[in-house]
Amino acid sequence: MQMQNRLNSIIKKVRGYHPNPDINKLREAFEFANAMHEGQVRKSGEPYMTHPLEVMDIIAGLRLDVSSLVAGLLHDTVEDTDTTVEDLRDMFGEDVAFLVDGVTKLSKFSFNTREEAQAENIRKMIIAMSRDLRVILVKLADRLHNMRTLKYMSEEGQERISQETMDIYAPLAHRLGISWVKTELEDLSFRYLHADAYYEIAEKVASKKRQREMFIREVITILNDMLRENNIRAEVTGRPKNFWSIYRKMREQQIEFEQVFDILAFRILVPERVQCYEGLGLVHNLWKPIPGRFKDYIAIPKPNGYQSLHTSVIGPYQERIEIQIRTSNMHKVAEEGIAAHWLYKEGKAVPDRDDQKFAWLHRLMEEHQDHEDPREFLESVKIDLFHDEVYVFTPRGDVMSFPMGATPVDFAFAIHTEVGFHCSGAKVNGLMVPLKYQLQNGDIIEIITQKNQRPNKDWLAYVKTGRARTKIRHSVQKEQRDRSRELGRELLDKELNKRASTNVRAWERAGNLTKAAELCKFSSVDEMLAEIGYGKTQPETVIEKIYPSQARINATKNDNSESRLGQLWDKLVHRGKTGVVLDGIEDVMVQYAKCCNPVPGDEIVGFVTRGRGLSVHTRECARITHLERERQITVRWANEAKSNDAARRPVNVRVYCADKPGLLGSISNSFTQAGVNISQAQCITTEDSRAINTFEVLVNNLEQLKRAMKTIEKIKGVYKVERT
Ligand code: MN
After folding, report:
1. What's the pLDDT score for residue 594?
2. What does the alpha-carbon distance between residue 503 and residue 435 come to, in Å, rounded to a whole number?
3. For 653-662, what is each residue's pLDDT tens digit?
4. pLDDT tens digit sequence for 506-520
């Protein structure tokens, strides 16, 4: 009986917004659900059916269609009773069956499990949402009622469900623009997640309740009188802000409750848009506005469609108050969000592709295709869905929204992937800014592109959108993979040469590459080569798959017979401890560039050459400017390189001196004392009785070389010492 009364009052509520609801269908659904849930009770001890009824009431509050209301009544039948989706289809039609099925599937998702599973679930939810928003709205109603009755849950359950609500459902309600649901979900979760803080704030808000209520009445009266005098028909309301937003403010600004001034928020609803601005002028004329607090969301609506003017002023008694001014229509959108757009229209609610209000949803949908790793997707969704926004303009005057702290790089990727890839600089309001500049509201952004520009790893440190982050990461990874593959190919080539007197190309023709990849259980030849390039797989391992014993025999043979090739190789490439580290991988095969002859201690860069391994130059080397930037790779000296005699490096040193006996002896003596070996020397005497001595010496490191050169400089008769 009690439940019948409740049903009647909800039906009355539905009639309030729906012109001709199918009441019979609603009653049938109620009777069916009631029969199916017969005997079940909630944790509170109440009959289970109270829950679907209250969910229906919330759905009516969202002003949804009859199918959604029916789905609300039936939403737990498939999950908790013997009912099947087919049963529902037979009895209540395809639309209802689809909605209940969607809600049932969503209910199975847990957003607290492993990160990957959580990501996968959010992904499913977003896909479901883009098919039919009503699924999410019914689910939100279900969650809201569960939150309202959460006190009957175990403590562990309360915390888990509240966290999930705060992380997923409240932001979703916000994104969908349904502010009353968002606010209630936030305050309910807040109560269970930070009970102490919640009750402290609740108590403080309550402690001056009478005083505050008087103050609210006074402000409303002043505003009403002022507006009436100016012939503006308006509805003024006032209330304390919700607890969660007070708490968030305290936490973000690290202030005490007493310091949160604009705890009171007033709302002025007017009939016409132009009166919003008139009203604002009157308010600012009456009370002093606080600089920086005025926001015009009418001219620039939020992405969820929210429109309003916001300002904070110093009100009577010097108290700060927040005032929102909007039309009744804007208010409806603000409270009901997405629901306000289709109200009681029957049928599937698929957001229109061209509707700007749903642009974010489509963006998320398109983006999820880029993510192979669900964790990346999760990160991206969290960033895009749950952040505060800044609004900026394109040079053409289009408004775009970004998460707070976004940079020109984010902007570039939002315009087009190619613009992002080649973004080399940015102008904000006509002035050049660094790429890590943080976009400010109202900025006009212009992106400068260059054909040769590539996404930079450093950008990851400051981009804020999931889109930019994903694109940059993929590009960087691809570049690294390409480099490694090329390097791996060369390493394998050298090793084949040495061990089996063949090369990669011959292997390719003979099908050995594919065969080796299969035998080593790589998914492709490319993967195998990349793994060799990364240093994770040794070329020898791969070769031995094809030439199980021969490789070893040949290798020994090659090592013993000092073949010309072998000698050349040893001269060019130091195997084993080469002294150079490449992206954390030691033991890469390197060749030191002859143009600059780097020595441990020099600043160096590496280049992946075609067919000659990795070539290492000093950073100052004049030749590197002519080399392709894409082939450049970050390398540094290994820690032990400086004292490793096996990794000694030849350096040419030229000494200009007087042509006099004994001097050459002193010079070579200085080298020896510094621990430097001379491997070659050449002396030329000039006509003006000077000598130019060129030494090829072997050094361990830069300091050693410098020490030797300094000693030589001090020898009497030496004019100049230089490294060539
Ligand atoms: Mn439920």
Report:
1. 78
2. 45
3. 999 988 887 8
4. 888 888 888 889 888
What secondary structure does DSSP assign to 699-724, as a single string? Answer: ES-HHHHHHHHHHHHTSTTEEEEEE-
- E strand or H helix at 346, and its extent? none
Radius of gyration of the chain from Cα atoms? 37
pLDDT of residue 184: 94
The catalytic position among 80, 87, 389, 446 is 80
CA 88 to ligand 1 center in whole angstroms: 17
CA 342 / ligand 1 centre spacing (Å): 24
The predicted structure's pLDDT at residue 566? 38
Instruction: Name the catalytic one among 31, 79, 570, 713.
Output: 79
Residue 513 CA, chain-centre distance (Å), reads 38
Joined tokens for residue 445: 């952004």
Which parts of the chain have pLDDT scores under 70?
107-131, 261-262, 303-304, 337-389, 397, 399, 549-589, 609-613, 628-631, 639-647
Q: How far is CA 579 from the centre of its chain?
A: 37
Is 79 an annotated catalytic residue? yes
CA of 124 to the centre of ligand 1 (A): 19
What backbone phi and psi angles, to 5 degrees, belong to 304? -85, 5
pTM of the full structure: 0.52
List 222's β-bridge partners, or say none.
none
Q: Could you tell me the distance, in angstroms and rounded to a whole number, from the CA of residue 43 to the centre of ligand 1?
A: 12
Distance (angstroms) between ligand 1 centre and the Cα of 368 equals: 28
CA distances for 318 relative to 314, 408, 611, angstroms: 5, 40, 78
Q: Is 362 exposed, middle or buried (0-12, 13-18, 19+ CB in 10 A)?
A: middle
Active-site residue flag, 559 = no
Task: List helix spans (H) across 616-662.
Answer: none
